[in-house]
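Example (one chain per record):
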Amino acid sequence: MAPTDFDLAKVPPRPAAKCGSSGDDIVVCARKDAAMRYRYQRLPDDDEGSAVPRAETAIGNVKASVEVERKDLPGAASNRVMVKLKLPS
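Predicted structure:
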């Protein structure tokens, strides 16, 4: 079992980054994709359907379904949930 008591002063320093530092300049080193690494990518605009499929079930002779829909309005977006019940005729 490893000891739980340790001294950070005994940890060897990490080697210096080699990305073009010279003299008293402040240099920030990063990969080109680092800014986008943890960001969600924009979803494609899809007006043909919903990103979430319709949920549908039958309760006896009654069919029930739930759908989501989004419509862009001037200055805002309208997110909707629709619950439909279809009774036998």
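Caption: The first strand starts at residue 55 and ends at 59.
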